[in-house]
Structures
1.
Amino acid sequence: MPLADADRELVEAELGREPTRAEAALFENLWSEHCAYRSSRPLLGAFDSESDDVVVGPGDDAAVVALDDDTYATLGIESHNHPSYVDPFDGAATGVGGIVRDTMSMGAYPIALADSLYFGDFDREHSRYLFEGVVEGISHYGNCIGVPTVAGSVAFNDGYEGNPLVNVACVGLTTPDRLVTATAETPGNKLVLVGNATGRDGLGGASFASEDLAEDAETEDRPAVQVGDPYAEKRLIECNEALVDEGLLVAARDLGAAGLGGASSELVAKGGLGAEIALDRVHQREPEMNAMEILLAESQERMVYEVRPEDTDRVAEVAERFDLGCSVIGEVTDGNYVCTFDGETVVDAPAEYLADGAPMNELPSEAPSQPDRDLPALVAGDDGSTDPDALAEVVEAVVGHPNTASKRWVYRQYDHEVGVRTGVLPGDDAAVMAVREAETESGEPLGLALSSGSEPRWTEAAPYEGARAVALENATNLAAKGATPLAAVDCLNGGNPEKPEVYGDFAAAVDGLAEMCAALSVPVVGGNVSLYNDSVAGPIPPTPTLAVIGKKAGFDAPPAAFAGEGTVLVVGAAGGSLGGSEYLAQAGGSDRFPELPENAPVVVETLAAVADREDTLAVHDVSHGGLAVALAELVTDAAGADVTLDGALALFDETPGRAVIETTDPDGVREAFDGVAPVEAIGETTTDGVLSLTVGGVDLSYDAESIRDLRAVIERELD
Amino acid sequence: MTVSVIQFGGSNCDRDAVRALSHLGVDAERVWHADGLPTDTDGIVIPGGFSYGDYLRAGAMAARQPIMGEVREAAADGTPVLGVCNGAQIGCETGLTDGAFTTNRSARFQCEHVHLRIERADTPWTAAYDEGDVIEVPIAHGEGRFEIREDRLDTLEAEDRVLFRYCDADGDATQGANPNGSTANVAGILGARETVAVMMPHPERATLPDIGGTDGQGVLRAFAE
């Protein structure tokens, strides 16, 4: 995709001459949708990114949020969608590498990863190939670099058939003293490139990620996909840590999309400065690379640092210790962004114009509409009569669907305990990481909770309401483990924005996500946009992945497993409709998306407080698959429940902001939620490991083993 | 006692081992392999992780680093040496212990909690337990299947050098409780001396009380003597 004519004219007017080949290539990549967010930036103003805790907001490699006075958390998210279609193993692996370097470049040490993955229908052979490859790629890279993968989500939906999504979030820890940003500070300081040698890999990745995937993408676009080297990344993590320890870094940026050209121009542009870079000095892996290749190659595991001139020797020594290449490639100036090669000037343009000069696209959009109610006979009748066989069939279809089934097959392949911080393991509503360095206001050790995900069926049915629900569901995940949300990052995935209905759906999802995050007082401190997830198979559903972190006292939480000693309560208001539910996907029909509570922040806060009560034995949020799935997940060999519900609607309603609580003090829970949300006692737990349901007068019963069997569909099919 | 936790390029459980040992009051520090073994080393941990990315056979590259010569000498002199996970693979590659750890039966990486049966309680690594005790410890490996020639397994068993076996919660070493297909459910073994041991499960991940189980503490207490 060459530089578009309209852009070329702008560049010519700015430079007063024709751009060189290297400049044209640089503008093409930096002004691509992937780097410049030309179609989405007008929408991103909807997000509120500020709070008292935010230290560095959007625009840097990762956001920084204060946990207490002396401890900061970094938070970033990235998509690696197109590469993961072309080469699932390497595409996903390098996605992990990129977001970890974003963490390092803030002077932080990575402590947790979360992956939200989206594939076509599980029954399709190609979906399984991509799923297996992506999980293996994440496992290979994340395990090798020793960063635990502790949270995430997996969804299967035919909308992703031609465009799988791989969204990777990373949390790191740093301190006020160690914090480094990507803002160049002082002319005369040196620019130092540390890490892998540069080769001809990943050329034009940014512009490749800004187009629809072509039918022949798997063969044609393979050169645009990079190959990761996690061993080099691990050494780079250690090297970066040592450089931060010694205070040698003035500014840092990792090399990602658009390679050295992107990272170095953005670094100096943020400081309102320029640079002079001799491209010949870059350590190279292949002979006879030209200027454009050195400038734009997306070879992995590289960082560019601003270093004081007197410190460059020491930086080189540290890099050498970790067997990493190191080149002093130029210096920060107060002029243009200038690159020379072989004695010739190949780029000479204002850095800020490169980084921020791309014009924004004003695209036409069509507002989405919601479907009407047309429910399957099972729940449509007002007389409450339910067909027992049909009910059993649909319960099993929903509980045993790969979307709601156990993801153990996935997270078992991820090292989720390296780092000895994982207090609550994957498979629960949210992970809780031990941040022993920090304290809560009450002086207790600080647990950092993490949840990440989106629900395509929701945003497909109702982009705005569904995206609001995604935000509320992630916040509820944290609250179910006793944590209150602190900050979030988003990864906004959409189809081709030039199609008005696709752009309309995407815009509605962005607005919905922003609205609920603001309502919950969760600042959205950074993110990533990935458009053109479109192919002959059609556009993806608008997919706003949200990764949220929250704080709690201590590192443990009530389990998402019954104890067998209490009353089963459902807290929170059911919306009373089924739009976007797994139930409708299985049983057919349509409905409006459920209404969400207007007092969501108070519900979340109250749930977090109740989760931490002594008499709370188990908590699990209600979301995908409704109570049917939530209750099934709570059953163990030693503990079951006797539960009575009005009808199938109550069993399958997916309204988020609700939770199942097992408690020995139901009145205490009612009191806590008084005036906040309804609390309904739906039964008692038992010690027989059987889930006995009475739904609209129909009795169903499943023991722990049959539930485990239903929920093991992914393992059964893939092992 | 000062324990040296050896950091190879790519080791990633080095910090965890130091943290766990420190929790038990043991003085431990990370030692970069190229710097050699400090002279005041009284104990050695070869930690888990992916030394050199394990791009060759797991542990093969690390086993050939000069510092492993020093480790062999120290081990022969009676210095306690514990290899965990990748450290166990390195230990076998180096010849500190017999056998080899290779690709899991599932051919996939597996991170989960398993049960181990204490096969003998008269070694420094198991003195905190009773023979037959069952402990719960995490594993996290792709190449953890213990393999050994049959005659050498016989020797190993005859000399009572199997330290831990994978078992179910009741202590039965069944195939169902064997996570990776290890020969004879072997999870950890002794070297030529009782002061040398390797194991695939991670005792340092079951030591800190604030994140759950502490069943692995007993193994690391060998260094607290």
2.
Amino acid sequence: MSLVTPDFGLLVWMTLIFGIVFFVLAKWGFPMITASVRERAERINASIKAAKEAEERLRNLADEQNALIEESRKEQARILKEAASSRDAILEQARVQAREEASRIMEQAKAQIATEKESALRDIRSEVAMISCDVAEKVLRKEFLQDDAKKEYVSRVVEEISSARADSLKN
Amino acid sequence: MKRLVGIFILIFLLPLCANAQGSEEFDMDSYLYGHVGDSYEWHITTINGRPVSIPLPVILFSRQGSGFHCFSSSRLEDGAEYEGFRIASGESPYSGKIVETAPDGTESRPWDISITKNVLGLIINSILLVVIVLLTARWYRRHDAREEAPQGGAGLMEMLVMMVEDDIIKECIGEDYKRYSPYLLTAFFFIFLSNLMGIVPFFPGGANITGNIAVTMVLALCTFVAVNVFGNKHYWKDILWPDVPTWLKFPVPLMPVIEIIGIFTKPFSLMIRLFANILAGHFMILGVVAVIFLTAELGPAMNTGLGAVAILLGVFMDCLELLVAYIQAYVFTMLSAVFIGLSRQKPETE
């Protein structure tokens, strides 16, 4: 029966020893451990929260970046378009200018051609005049040969003309 | 393979040892009770028929006026009498305990606070526990626990402590668990360590601490105090005037009486559960080992066969006891926490 009757001495010692153990562990043992672990748990939670926030911020940053890229792409497209249109305008202008220039040159050429033609005509006319004169001379000479007076007159006329011509040449 | 061979050699050597031991009659009763019970000296082994044991101090206060006595238990060996005290023999109601004999020949027990085997085991376990826990706590004092986690022994202790704290204490008590957590943690580790030390078959283990009813009684009383001294108003109202139909509590206070009995049966069940489980575990292991000695008379073949079975069974029982050591510590702590939690309940607001 001694197994189920609590022994007085053991009760006393157990109370004393367990009391001391409890006091020591409750003062310097377990609270230290549990408090430290709790602190760590809090810190881990805080860290996770911070990491989540950082991730969120990073994601926002990426969004911002994407928006920036999108914007710059638009800007690029706009600039390209502008450049194309200005190129077209310049080309158009150049074409107009060229056309004007060409027409001006054409005009000049025409004018020159006209003068050239005039002078050519004039030359031809004078040549024709000369030829006709020569022809006339020849015809006249033939007629004049038969008559000395006429011959004299002609030579005089010729002299006059040649002098006149020399004068005109001199002048 | 080498190990297996070793084990088989051991098993075949077994009958020789058993025969050497079993030359005298094997006394099952003294074998069983000697191992699970308390004694005034710590018996370690027997060499050549002579017991080798550690003598322990006997501390007595006589009830018959001879005052305070303190001497070594070796003076009481083999039923010797010293300063009027002797260890009572088998027929006495105080069998195995120190008694003093009155002049008229009647035996009586003095106030006996001797350092017995169990007390020494208790002291050893307590020192071990305090050292383990304080070493763990020292790690936290020396390190910044927010920056790093402990490894090795401190890590193991942290895991156990937080398991008890988070799974048992916080779950069962609720919001003001921090107040009770040191007690429940102490109880858990005290029981767990004592259970484990009880399984170790030689000094300094082997003392049957948690399988002793005085020890479990003190533990249960601590829970009783924690429950009833710090119980709130709602707890006492629930006991004395529970929410049941009036005829159950007036004029015959049926429910209050049941509840008041319940106050005492709860720690009582804690006490008996731990005590009985650990004691039964020790008995089973001892019984299995006893098979080896009991079969010594049946001849070497029988002894070897049954001895081998007994060893395998013993290994199994020891593993089972490791499990029980943990489970009983867990159960004691959890039920204590549940009882404390019940005493801290807030009235339901409807």
3.
Amino acid sequence: MNEIVVAARALEKAFAAGKLEVRALRGVDLEVRTGEFLALVGPSGSGKTTLLNLVGALDRPTGGELTVLGRRVGELSRRERAELRLRSIGFVFQAYNLVPVLTALENVEFVLELQGAGADRRNRARQVLDELGLGDLAHRRPSELSGGQQQRVAVARAVAARPKLVLADEPTANLDGENAEVLMHLMRDLRDRHGMTFVFSTHDPRVVAHAVRVVTLVDGRVARDEAKPEEAPHPIVPGIGKPPAPTGG
Amino acid sequence: MAALSSRYALRSVGRNARRTLLSVAGIGVGCFLALFMESLNRGRDELFARVGAESGSGHVRVVPRGWRERRDPRLRLADWRADRAAASALPGAKAVAPRARAQVLLAMGTHVVPVELVGVDAAVEPRAFRFVRNVVKGRYLVPGEQGAVVVGKVVAERLESDVGDDILVSAVGKGGDIQSGMLRLVGVVSTGSEEIDASIAQVAMEEVERLTGLPGAGEVTVVLEDWRTADAARDLLARRVAAGDAVMTWGEINPEFRGHLQQDAAISRFVSGIILLIVFLGVASAQLAAVLERRREFAVLAALGMSTGRMVRLVLGEALALGLAGGALGLAACLPVLWRFSRAGLDFRRWMGSSYSFQGVIVEPILYGDLGAWVIPYAAAVALGATVVASLYPAWFAARTDPAVALRVAQ
């Protein structure tokens, strides 16, 4: 757990809003190492999503330095950033954002196809869904799934290619307490078993409770960075332990 | 495109059924109109090439050296028999007619009519110039018949002559002297065109040789089975004719007529282009609306690492599906119409009379559409081409989606 996955130095991001300039990040210093389970917290407008977008190479900083998985994001072309995201970063969005015309299985398989995975990609996608307890829902489209189920499929999609870094922007914002709990357990479990690094933003104190490290942003700066003692993982995945009964989201 | 991406594209087409149906209908209508216009263009080209050939010019013609520049009817072929043999050996040659021409005066009583007297081989001429078969009085020439003439209805009226009358013919001889002879009127033909009927006067080729003192034929006219092979026939025949003789196509013989046809075709194709442009804009608008509607989805795909090229291919794949459906619809709707159009034709006789002449060519105003294997690749090219080109901008727009901005706006 020593390798540096994300390194931000005096990171800045400003947006033009008409004639005004909005400085969303004002010199963020942050280091994230392999296997961390890190929560970004802070009030609305504090820069959480902006920071996640930069770390996810969706955007480029306007100042400072940002290195993700050894690549300097500010120097990467659009194509190189897309390649970095495809190969090494998984995303979980607040609104699930599954492709509506594809089934759960196809949504997961699609990422593997984008990566150029071979003929076994369907089996790999099915394995991931099984791992997250979604095997029975593989052939349902997003509209036939509850919010909680959709978000679990979104997590399956994010981790299917075994990325080193998984970013989740308010992943539980649209879930009820029970589904939020299930999701956090799943993410913790994946991190524990596969060594992935999870960085997620949240407002939800119940979600924060699962984090091993909590970084608080205020006005585009890191106001607090605290590590928490790691609890024993909760066994929730079929085959490992009994999950809470999935409920509608 | 990989299998899952193809499925994705296909299912995306079905998302908004109403828009998809409207797009497919629009492409179908455009395809229908484009096919119809093209059938009309091809039919018109065929009609004019056919009537041009049947009006005497043939599809290809062997002419003497210098004729192309001077158009002098006194010029004669170097070896017309060799040229006729070479022309007869051409693949697809339907009729091979040697002719000799002379400017003459026909006179009867006090009436004098200047015409171009054409010496022909009566055995083959009616196959090369079908309107001389329209004999309204008397008969056509008999092969080998001397001292006989067939004239157009207007010529006969101007001479106030009738079948059985003797007509004086006078021509300038080889040495510049006036040569005269008597011809018996054996038949009067009517083409339906006053202009043409005022110019027809045919005799045996030997009569023209005797009058002018110029031996042989001044041209060998060839009518082909398929007018589209005229260029190839010209090239082939040019290598086989007697030294010094040249070969021209019907368009080269009658450049004004060909120019008019080309102008006509250009106007038709311009109209087709306008139709396609309208379809094109409709498809582009619908595709752009579809892309804008799915901006968030494209942002997510970009966030997942989908490359620009792949996203373009995804949108173009959807366009291809629309184009295929629209092309199939347009083709299915148009085929019965083209079938009818190619058999019964569009009959303009009610408005234009039974025939009219243009640039010396008699035209029957019945336009038959062309129906052939070309309709399938043409429909595919129109539907797929227009749809894919119309989708290039929406595809580029989708591929340029900035995931960070699009997701921020969506949230």
4.
Amino acid sequence: MPGRIMIVDDAAFMRMMLKDILTKNGYEVVAEASNGHEAVLKYEETRPDLVTMDITMPEMDGITAVKEIRKKDPQAKIIMCSAMGQQAMVVDAIQAGARDFIVKPFKPDRVVEAVKKVLGN
Amino acid sequence: MGDTFDVSHYLGVFIEEAKEHIESLEENLVKLEKEPDNQDFIQAIFRSFHTIKGSSGSMGFQQMAELAHLLENLLDRVRRGEVSVSSSLIDLLLQGVDFLKRMLEEITKKGQEPDWNMEEIFSALQNFRGEGEKDDSGEYWLTVKLAPDCSMKGVRAYLVISRLQDSGIEVVNTVPSLSDLEGENFGQSFDVLVRTALPPEEVAKIVESVAEIERVEAKGGEGEEEERDQIEEKEEKNTVSPTGEQKITTNLKKTVRVDVERLDSLLNLVGELVIDRTRLEDIIQRLKDYQELIQFREILSDTTTHIGRITNDLQMEIMKARMLPLAEVFNRFPRLIRDLARQSGKEINFIIEGEETELDRSLLEEITDPLIHLLRNAVDHGIESREERISKGKPPQGEIVLRAYQEENSVVIVVEDDGRGLDIEKIKDKAVRMGLVTPEEVSKMSEQEIVDFIFYPGFSTSDEVTEVSGRGVGMDVVKRNIERVNGQVRVESQLGVGTAFYLRLPLTLAIIRALLVRVGESIYSIPLSDVVEIEKVEKENTYWVNRVLTTLFRGKTLPLLWLEALLDSRKYDFISEDEIPEVLYTVVVSASSSLAGLVVDEVLGEQEIVIKSLGSYMGDVRGLGGATILGDGGISLIIDVASLLWKFSRAGG
């Protein structure tokens, strides 16, 4: 049972790549956001089943966005997209309520595995 | 653990942190008793035990770690709903916290944990059974194998462990240790010892819900049900994790711990700056006479104003850094009230308000004992028994409110109860019988003045008064302590309705406003808070009473004291009547509700002064509260009015 996903990343290239991977595997990308602030607003609008969240972004970073979203929806399922060397930030994000993480450069099957597990399908 | 890595210089931080956790434990446990279903309290308590376990283990305090571990286990059972919150549970947990506290005290004193026999509390914790509870949890090891190309293994392991904990499964131990896991010092797999009622397959499923996990295997999953005997308990002892497990649950805040002494010396330095500023102002004044220097004078004046602003800000900032919320003190009181109420069989609703109000930390220490005193009195004597309250038509549950708020440059703390109140008539009787006042005098006194008798030393110790007024056990001590830190105590009471004590405290001890007076060649500073009025007394209006020169002040006799002689423990310097000057410049001061007039040669004015302590090598300095440096570089001694008046009474009144 695939789901509705929102992609959050400040790089359009990354968003495009993730979108390709996800749609090819039957998921529907219902929203895209390029910073944390936008992500919080769009989450409210679209209420996706899952969010992929970049960590370093302008305006509002990913960790703050996780906190904000979880404040509004404690059940929100969020996967962090991390670059190598961001260990401490990923831990922060997990403490803030992120469910899992994937590490760039993305491998399609890893992305799909994480999404599948978090969605429980 | 301890043999290769010296942990001794973490001892200070460990003690501080453990103390904080113990305080918040007491607070939260009492709160939990009131709201047994509040998950926030349960989580907070669990985290505190968990942190203490981890850090005491790291410090090598095995007994303490073991105790915290058992407390944490019990809390975990509460968290999972296996044990329900009851008074007996809270009692046991508080008992455990008491042990932690006493162990910490020993550690603070001796640097090592005490060698106590803890069997009793250990087994009480291990064997605690809630109502109708059947313990079916067991421990077993899981091996978690990560996917071969898994990146950020450390975070992955962290995620697995936090996922387990979020699902209510206790992680008892890991191989390698947690810090090694987080530091990625391991291969493709690691082992976790879990404690749970869930079967291994269920637990494996939870772990596998994390991405990039290849396989989860349970070891020794058989027969774990009957393992709950001593053998297993022994093993459990050995598995208390010696590593910094607290990392998992504590959120790091961006704060720096600074030694208080460092703040003290910073404030001292700012004090020096304030003095220099005053000196600069003094120089500017003197430059007035030199017309040709007028330009320089203006520049100097501008610069000095700027320095003044900066030092003021600096002073404020450092003062703020020394401030701690009153919660530091208040938080331990719910426990105190709970225990006292249980002992006396009274029902008390204890309310704390304004605990976020901040106060200088040295003051915080000073007010703890007086507050305990007032609260104890409120429970013991203020609040009536349940039956008495019902018969009076009051709600059966008494109420004690501890409130704090800031008012201009002071902090006010109120201890208020809705108990029986003070009986003015009985206090009057007692005061007359003790010979403190005559019946005529007392009939002219205001209610407030009469109530103030409870602060009179020895007034309280009589059982009669304690019975009827319900107050006064060591009230003089309370008042003295508060006045020593330049504070004031006031009481308001209504018979049958309740009593309220108001403690007014300065925000800081280091800088005060003072009245500067000259006596001979010396300049003395009298704290403005002690000054009632400045009077010009004519010689013809003075009288000798019991060989003390007195005058009338607002219809009362006022002893006139020569400051310099008094500091020397003598009463007067003059021998004959003729030596008394025609006009006496008198500063009327008050301390512990007694008034006195200090005769000086000249009143110079009012100024902000920085208190410097006199140091311990000085001899008898009673009567003096310290010294300060004046604008011209001279030194002025600060008068401590309370002890000065004490000295006067000793000099033979």
